[in-house]
Amino acid sequence: MEPIMAIVVGLLYAAAIYMMLRRSIVKLVIGLMLLSNAANLLIFTSAGMSRGAPPLIPLGSALPDGPVADPLPQALILTAIVIAFGVLAFAVVLIHRAYNIIRTDNLDQMKDTDT
Amino acid sequence: MSLEVALPVIIPLLTGTFCVMLWRHNVIQRVLSLVGSIALLASSIWLMVSVLREGHVVMYMGNWVAPYGITLVGDMLSAIMVVLTGMMAVAIAIFSLSSASKSHERFGYYPLMHLLLAGVAGSFLTGDIFNLFVWFEVMLIASFALLILGGERAQMEGAVKYVTLNLLSSAIFLSAIGLLYGITGTLNFADISVKLAAAEHTGMVDVIAVMFMISFGIKAAAFPLFFWLPASYHTGPVAVSALFAGLLTKVGVYALFRVFTLIFNQNPDFTHELLLWVAVGTMLTGVLGAAAQFEFRRILSFHIVSQIGYMILGLALFTPLAIIGGVFYIMHHIIVKTNLFLISGITHRLLGTYDLKRLGGMYKARPFLSILFLIPALSLAGIPPLSGFFAKFIIIKAGIEVEAWFVTFVALLVGLLTLYSMIKIWAEVFWKKLPEGIDPTPLKEGKTSGSLAVLYLPVVLLAACTLVIGLHGQPIYEWAEFSASQLLNPEGYIDAVLGGNRP
C-alpha cells in the first residue's frame, strides 16, 4: 500500500507546484489546496499505515490487545485540514477582492509592489 | 503549576476576545488593547524572573505529562522573546491610539492585533513541534487580515505574495513534521531530540533538516526565499508594518534557533555550513536591495532581510560566543527596527508620503524627531556606543575566533552599506530642503498637538531602550550568555521537560 500512496503523494505535490506556477491567480489557489492535501496524505503515509486495528481498549482492561494503529497522525491531519480550510477560505476571499480591485487575474500584471 | 508560562498566550487571546465582544465600541477597544498589552508585558516579565531563577519553566497542558500532552516550555531564549513581544505590544498599542484610522478600527484592528500577539507568544513558548505549526497558523491568519486592512491595490498585490509564500512554507513545515514523526514517533521537542540522537543517522534526517530550514527560512525571510517581504511589508498600515517588522520574521529566526540547537545538532558540518552560506547571501542581498530603493519603508524592509542574516550567522557559526551574538542581535534588532518603522509613520503623518524624493526639511522643522531617528538608524548601522555596535561586535569577534574570514568580511561590509542607506534617509528626509511644490504647512503647525505627542511616546521609549542596551549592556549580555549556554546544552531543556520520563 505504501508505494502506491507514495506515488499519489508525489503526483499531488507535482500537480500543486504545476498549478502554482501558472499565471492565473485562481490556479494559484487550486495549487495551494492540492499542496495542503498532499502534505496531509504524506503525514498519513509516513506515520505508518495499518489495517483493522483500531486503538480501542476492551472493557475492563487497561491496555489494548496486541498492536494497534497509531491514532495521533489522524488527529494531526484533522487539525491540519481544519487549519487549511480556514486559511484557504481567506485566500479565496482575498483573490476575489484582489480581482475586483486590480481587475486582472494575471499574476504577471501584479508587479507594482515588486522591486 | 507554573502559570507564568501560559499567561503570555492567554492574556492576548482574552484581550482579543473581549475586543470582539465590544465590536462596535472603538474607544473601549482602544483602552482594552492598551491594558491588555501592558498586562502582556507584565506577565512576560514575570516569566523572565522565573526563568532567571529556575532555568526552565515547564507547564503540561491538562496535566498530560510530556511527551504525551502539549507542553509549554519557557527557557531563557523564549523568555527574552516574549518580553520583547510585550514591549512591542505596548509600543504599538500606544502608537495605534493615534495612528489607527476609523475604518481600520471598524474592521477589527484591535482583535486581530491581539490574536497576532497570541500566535507570536505561543510560538515562542510551545514545546511541541505540531503545536508550533498551529501557533504559526494563528499568527499568519491574523497577519493576513491585518495586512489588507484598508484594501488598497498595493496591499492586495502584496498580500497575494505574502499569503502564497507563507502557505507554501506552512505546507513544507507540515510535510517535514510528518516525515519527522515517521522516524521518531513523537512531537515533543525534547523527546524528538532524544529519539533522534539514539536513532541511526541517515540521509533522511538531513533531508528533514533542510525542509525545516526552507520552511523557517521563508518565514524569516532568509536568502533566497525573502522576496515576499519587501513586496508586502511596506503596503500595510504603518503600525502593522512596524509590528511585522519587529516580530514576525523573528519568529522564523527563533524557530531556526530552537530546531537547529535542540533537534538537528548531530551533523553541524552539513546543516550549519548551509546556514552559514544562507546568512552570507541574506546579508548581502538585503543590503544591496536597500541601496536601490527610494521609499522609506521599502529601504527599511530590505534592511530587515539583511539584519536577519546576522542573526542566522550567529546560529551558523555555532560557537558559544556566536550564539550569544545572535541572541543579542535579535534583542537589539526588534527594538530598533520597530522604532524606525514608527518614525517613518510620523514623517508620513507630517508630509503624507513615504517617497524620499518628496520628503525633506524635517531637521529644520522637527529637530527632536531627527535626533530620535538618528538613535535607531545609527544603532542599526552599528555605530558605538549604541546597541547595534555591541551586537555586531560580538558576532564579528565570534567570526574571527573561528577564522571564518570571508564571512566576517561580509558582515563588516554590510555594516558599512547599512550606514550608507541610513545616511541616504537622513540626507533625503531630514537634511535636504523640502522639495519645491510641496506644502510645508503640516510640518510647521501643530507643534503641541496631542495626537503627535502620542505618536512620539513609543518612539522615545524604544529609543531609550536602544540607549540603555548600548550604554549599560552588561545585564543584557549576561541574559544572552545565559540563553546561549542553555541552547548549547540541550540536556537541561530535555531534563526539564521529560523529567522522570526519560527512556
TrEMBL record, chain A:
The chain crosses the membrane at residues 6-21, 28-49, 75-95. GO terms for cellular component: plasma membrane. It is a multi-pass membrane protein. Keywords: Cell membrane, Membrane, Transmembrane, Transmembrane helix. InterPro entries: CPA3_antiporter_subunitC (IPR050601), NUOK/Mnh_C1-like (IPR039428). It is found in: Cell membrane. PANTHER family: ANTIPORTER SUBUNIT MNHC2-RELATED. Belongs to the CPA3 antiporters (TC 2.A.63) subunit C family. This is Cation:proton antiporter. It comes from Aliidiomarina sanyensis. The lineage of its organism: Bacteria, Pseudomonadati, Pseudomonadota, Gammaproteobacteria, Alteromonadales.
Automatic annotation (TrEMBL), chain B:
The chain crosses the membrane at residues 6-24, 31-52, 72-95, 107-126, 132-150, 162-183, 203-228, 240-263, 275-296, 308-332, 368-396, 402-423, 453-473. GO terms for cellular component: plasma membrane. GO terms for biological process: ATP synthesis coupled electron transport. It is a multi-pass membrane protein. Residues 128-416 form the NADH:quinone oxidoreductase/Mrp antiporter transmembrane domain. It comes from the Bacteria. Keywords: Cell membrane, Membrane, Transmembrane, Transmembrane helix. InterPro entries: CPA3_Na-H_Antiporter_D (IPR050586), NADH_UbQ_OxRdtase (IPR003918), ND/Mrp_TM (IPR001750). It is found in: Cell membrane; Membrane. GO terms for molecular function: NADH dehydrogenase (ubiquinone) activity. Its main location: membrane. NCBIfam families: PRK12663.1. Belongs to the CPA3 antiporters (TC 2.A.63) subunit D family. This is Na+/H+ antiporter subunit D. It comes from Aliidiomarina sanyensis. The lineage of its organism: Bacteria, Pseudomonadati, Pseudomonadota, Gammaproteobacteria, Alteromonadales.
